[in-house]
Every structure is written in structure tokens, then in C-alpha cells.
Amino acid sequence: MQLHWHRRDLRVADNRGLATAAEAGPVAPLFVFDRDVLDHAGAPRVRYLLDALAELRGAYRERGSDLLVARGDPRAVVPAVAAALDAEQATWGIDYSGLARERDADVRLALDDAGVGREPVHDAIFHPPGSITTNAGDTYSVYTYFWKKWRDRDKPEPYPEPDADDLADANTLETAVEALGDAEFDVAAGDLPTMSDLGFEEPSAAVQSAGTEAARERLSAFCADAIYRYADDRDYPTRDATSRLSTDLKFGTIGIREVYAATAAAREGVGGERDESVEEFQSQLAWREFYAHVLREHPNVVTENYKEYENDIAWRDDAEELAAWKEGKTGYPIVDAGMRQLREEAYMHNRVRMIVASFLTKDLLCDWRHGYAHFREHLADHDTANDNGGWQWAASTGTDAQPYFRIFNPMTQGERYDPDGEYIKRYVPELSDVTANTIHEWHELTDLERERLAPDYPEPIVDHSERRERAISMFEAARGDD
């Protein structure tokens, strides 16, 4: 008997750890609700997680098996379940955060004490940390060099999914559950907790559909059309040119090899701009791995600046301005549209993520950690490595970050990437009757003009030009410039 511990791999197809276990089979699948992880979760992610687990459970039941579901500390759960199953080995997909590494080290020791073998595998990314390095053997801090090596490395094909003969039958799982009746944790075959059971309220945001089938539909639709427009259109939030696979990849409801194989197939027989566009999307997959490598090498970046400055950065951290940013009431239309999209959909377009992050850190002079925490709470696709990398990029504190003196102008960004105001009006209905040109000039209008045009929409809470100069001075002081 083999035990496969699902974590960020909520699928049966293209699952390296599950396929590895199935080679020795039969496999008993397990998912553990870990309170240490849930303490850092937000309602949208928990909602997606439960929906994805329901589909995963269905996939196992179709094959005559089921999904063991436990609530407790994996350090106790995994070895105890393995013992109840008389499992020879446990497999799981490796995660790269400091929290995950500490937990997994303890689980490995507990399995050793129980006499159970273990085989953690790299599943969420193609090339594990340490496999793409500088000539000196160091983790890359500049993406471009990392990308060139990533691009040229061979990519393995998707792993096969198990059939019924590869899996433990439902009766075997029920027997193991009965043997664990006196355990210090809850475990059942197929019984999923509710949001309330886990201590969360249903999210107000409309979280996208979860599971492998939904992810495959998104991937298929993207590769049929938008992938060929990706390079030109991906920065425009109304052009529907992104894959929307970020949540699926975060939870592993679809495998990275399956995604890449679909993009490689889309690239066959095309040339010129269409080929370049597909490669541009593939480069975004490389960004995921780049940030995973950085996190694995520097786990402290979750709470600390990656880049060292001579002096502390004198963040302003005004509570009222931070609240206005969170509520989408800054008086800068593209910023407010993005923050309201986040609230309504548990998602934000990537270009707009950069805009709102720049605004928080460079216009409001707020510590990036406030933004990171807000995104962690509200994004369905929150990923520690990617979100941290993105926030520190915008704040000029991260690896390969935006230079501190290159500061997004939110009005220029809105005019460039939402010229007709379509995105802004969708999420800021107070401006629905205002012309696009006027929206992009909102900061230049008089108070009386703004009151007449959109009485329920606020005036800008800061002056961008003034705050830009303050931001540059703040970073120069941190650098120790004279």
C-alpha cells in the first residue's frame, strides 16, 4: 500500500507524486486541513479549495476509491494514516515556503520513526530549485538570465493518471478510518468540512469554478485564441487575453506539464508574431519558477525586504489612506477599479496589480507588507512566491525589482491600458456617465467639476506628482544618498 498526501496538487492527471505512488500501488489518497496553513488563508481560497477537493473526491469515487480527509497536524496525521493503512511509502509534492519546509521536515522524521518510506517529488514546477543557477552556483536574482536557461531546458511530458487498479478501494479506506477512531485528529473517507467548520464565512466575491475540468476548459479556450494575442493584449484588462489559470496552477487542479504541452501544441506550425506571443506566455510560466527558486533560497522574503538598503525605508503607513486603497476609494479611477475587482471576483488583472501595488508603495508610501497581506486575504490565486515577488518588485525592494525612481503614473496607466474607460466603468459605476477623456483627467478637474460629474466618487486623496518626489526622496534616504 502507498499513501499519497495531496497538497497543492488537487488532481489525478499529470500528478507526479500520485503517478510515482501508483507504480508500486495501490494508492490511498489523503488531504489534510492544516491549521497552520488555514491561519494564513482567506475565504476565497478556502472556497476554491473545497470545490476543488469535491471534484478530486469525485474523480477517486469514479475509480472505486475515495479521498481520505483529515483535520489536524500533518505531523501526526500522515504517519498515523500510513500506519493504519500499513503503507510502505508516502509521496507528496514539494512546496518551497519556509512554513512548508519546516512542516515537511517534521513529517519525514515522523515517518522514519514509524518505519514508513517517503518520496517527496518536485511537481508544481519543471525545474526544481538548485537546477538553474549562475555559473557560480547561486540562485538567479535577475529573471532574464534565468529565463534563457529555463526556456532551453527539456520539459517532461504529463504523467499518466491512475486507473481503478492503481488505487485502494473504498472499503480499504473505510477500514483504515475505523482503525483511527481514537486518533487525536478527525479523519473520514470523502467527508469534506464546510466553510463554517473551518472557521470561515462564505466569500462575498464570486470565485471562479474549481477543478480540473474547469481548468482544462480555460486552457483550451485560451490556446484556441487569446494565446496568439497574448503579447500584444495581455496588459489591457478588457481584451480578455489572459489565461485565468493562476488559481488552477496555485492549487494544482491542472498540472504544469499539461499546461505547457498545450502551449507547445498551439505553437506548432505557427510563426512570426503568433509564435512570439506563445513564447511570451511560456515566459510567464518561467516567472512562477523564478520566484519559487527565490523563495526556496530566501524564505525570509515573505516578511523581509529582499534588497538591502543602508537605512530603513521610512514608510508613511497612513491608516486612512491605506483604508481608502483597500476600499477602492482613492480618487484614482484605475486603482479603484482594480481594488473593487479584487473584492468582487477574488481576482485582479495582472497589469492592474502592478498599478495598485505601485500606488500603495510609491504614492501612499505604504509598506508593501500591507498590500501583500490584503492580497493574501482576498485573492483566490494567492501564491506565496508569486505574490511576494510581485509586491517586492513594485516596492523596489525585491529581486530584479522596479527601480525606485521609475514610478507608475496611475492616470497615464489608466489612459494607456483602458483608453475607453471600459474597465474602470465596469467596477466604478459612479463614473459610468463620465466620458473616458474626463475620467483620465480626473485629477486635473476642480472640486466643483468632480462634484457635478460624479458626486458619489471621491476626489484624489493624494497629489501624484508631490508623492512621486517624496517617494524618490524616501528611497534615496534609505540608500544613504547625500
**Class from secondary-structure proportions:** alpha/beta
Helix content: 40-55%
Task: Give a quick account of the main beta sheet: strands, pairing sense, barrel closure.
Answer: 6 strands, mixed
User: Segments where pLDDT lies below 50 for 5+ residues?
Assistant: none
Q: What's the end-to-end separation, in Å?
A: 67 Å
Element order: H for helix, E for strand: EHEHHEHEHEHHEHHHHHHHHHHHHHHH
Strand content: 5-15%
| Strand line-up in the sheet with most strands | 5-4-1-2-3-6
Q: Mean pLDDT, rounded to whole units? A: 97
If helices are DSSP runs of H or I spanning 4 or more residues, what is the number of helices? 22
Number of strands: 6
Radius of gyration: 24 Å
Overall spatial form: globular
Properties at a glance:
482 residues; alpha/beta; six-stranded mixed β-sheet; 6 strands; globular
Topology:
Layout: E1 2-6, H1 16-24, E2 27-33, H2 35-38, H3 43-62, E3 68-71, H4 74-85, E4 89-93, H5 98-114, E5 117-121, H6 143-152, H7 170-179, E6 186-189, H8 212-224, H9 230-233, H10 246-251, H11 256-267, H12 272-297, H13 319-327, H14 333-345, H15 350-363, H16 368-378, H17 384-394, H18 410-417, H19 422-427, H20 436-439, H21 447-453, H22 464-479
Parallel strand pairs: 1-2, 1-4, 2-3, 4-5
Antiparallel strand pairs: 3-6
Helix pairs in contact: 4-5, 6-12, 8-11, 11-12, 12-17, 14-15, 16-17
